[in-house]
Design brief:
By secondary structure, this protein is an alpha+beta fold. The protein is about 25% helix and about 10% strand.
Length: about 70
Amino acid sequence: MPVHYLEADEWDLFDLKKDPAQMRSVYADPEYADVVKNLKTEIETLRQQYGEHDPCTEPQPAKPGK
């Protein structure tokens, strides 16, 4: 699963078989473009399934009582 750092709006993705120490992110590597696309699609599917929003692109819903 890719890691998203919200405040910096940056992503990391590590190939744990080739790089178990997580020393080199492959997120921007063209060889992993399909993996990134598929994982982001899965994240969006899960967000919709659980009614969550994308904190980077959607405003956070108001909390009840505030």
